[in-house]
């Protein structure tokens, strides 16, 4: 009798497994490309003459929002970041909220 119960239990298992629902992988949000960098939807980056925002479908569109940073030479810099001006030890560049760079004399080494 015990054997019959065990066999019945094994026979019922495959049908229980078929009743489980199968879900697909979670949808992946599109990413926007700029140079070799990818940005998440909602990112605001100056690209050309205007600040652009990354749309959920992976495209860029002009926006009035401030830029999240500056993009230069395939690198991303946060607003307020400073960098030496290439080839000029006496100048520094600062990333502004509109995504452009301003230059100023470098602080004296001391």
Q: Please tally the helical runs, counting DSSP H or I stretches of 4 or more residues.
A: 1
Q: Largest sheet, if any?
A: 3 strands, antiparallel
User: Using only CA atoms, what is the Rg?
Assistant: 28 Å
Instruction: Name the helix and strand elements from N-terminus to C-terminus, one letter apiece.
Output: HEEEEEEEEEE
Key terms:
1 helix, alpha+beta
Nutshell version of this structure?
The protein is α+β, with helices and mostly antiparallel strands. The chain contains one helix and ten strands. The strands form four sheets. Strands 3-4-5 form a three-stranded antiparallel sheet, with no helix packed on it.
Please give the structural blueprint.
Elements: H1 2-18, E1 32-34, E2 37-39, E3 44-47, E4 50-54, E5 60-62, E6 69-72, E7 75-78, E8 82-84, E9 91-95, E10 101-105
Antiparallel strand pairs: 1-2, 3-4, 4-5, 6-7, 8-9, 9-10
Provide an overview of this structure.
The protein contains 1 helix and 10 strands, in the order αββββββββββ. The chain has a 3-stranded antiparallel sheet with strand order 3-4-5, with no helix packed on it. The protein has a 3-stranded antiparallel sheet with strand order 8-9-10, with no helix packed on it. Strands 1-2 form a two-stranded antiparallel sheet. The chain is 15% helix and 35% strand. The radius of gyration is 28 Å and the shape is elongated. Strand 3 and strand 4 form a beta hairpin. It has one helix at residues 2-18; strands spanning 32-34, 37-39, 44-47, 50-54, 60-62, 69-72, 75-78, 82-84, 91-95, 101-105. The model has no long low-confidence stretch (mean pLDDT 79).
